[in-house]
Design brief:
Largest sheet: 6 strands, mixed
Strand order of the largest sheet: 5-7-6-9-10-8
Order of helices and strands: EEHEEEHEEHEEHEHH
Oligomer: single chain
Radius of gyration: 22 Å
Number of strands: 10
Shape: elongated
Strand content: 15-25%
Number of helices: 6
């Protein structure tokens, strides 16, 4: 960690004293390259810093494998919890239940889950955790395609992946896995999915 006594303003070379209220870190493509004191920041730089302060969670920053500084958005998911859920024991048509309780993304799977569903996640940490939980529970890959259903009665903070709507009510299977979610789905949930799946969900919401 850089000590406060080692930090100087890139423009006026004034050293940082105390906690550095109002100082900004200068980032270049995610890499921390310097610092600016409050007196040297332009109006645009100050406005950008205020936007970041309002939207990014600086308490959960991390450095990625390439050395770049990353801060998640406020209200987003910084960790994952995997396990089971009572709804899955009662209804074997449910393959996965996803909900968000910031900062935790909660994913429930059962042995009936389609093991391919770990590919839904764009975040590698999420994908790995779900794969390991499915393997632990004995889930096997299936052969069904995904479809998307917007249901206004669904909780906006939850996404259910169900084998198919017909099987869920005792009918004949449609060879589809339905991703069922609310039109008011929490946008932070969509951020954890791989882009092609998140885009498909957004497209399903749009016609509603």
């Amino acid at each position: 960690m850089e000590q406060a006594t080692d930090i100087v303003c890139d423009r006026c070379k004034r050293p940082l004293h105390g906690e550095g209220g109002g100082w900004n870190v200068v980032l270049d493509k995610g890499y921390a390259s310097g610092h600016l004191c409050p007196d040297c920041q332009t109006a645009e730089e100050n406005a950008e810093a205020e936007v970041h302060q309002a939207t990014l969670d600086y308490s959960a920053g991390r450095v990625d494998e390439d050395g770049r500084v990353r801060w998640p958005v406020k209200g987003g998911c910084h960790s994952i919890s995997v396990g089971g859920h009572g709804a899955m024991r009662e209804n074997k048509a449910i393959h996965m239940l996803i909900s968000v309780d910031p900062p935790v993304l909660r994913v429930a799977v059962g042995p009936q889950s389609d093991a391919r569903l770990s590919k839904l996640f764009g975040n590698e940490t999420c994908k790995k955790a779900v794969q390991e939980e499915m393997s632990r529970k004995g889930a096997q890959p299936g052969t069904r395609d995904l479809a998307y259903l917007v249901d206004s009665d669904m909780d906006s903070a939850g996404v259910w992946v169900v084998e198919d709507q017909e099987m869920a009510v005792g009918g004949v299977g449609s060879h589809k896995l339905l991703v069922i979610y609310s039109p008011d789905v929490d946008p932070h949930i969509l951020e954890v999915f791989a882009p092609e799946y998140a885009d498909s969900m957004r497209e399903a919401i749009h016609p509603q």
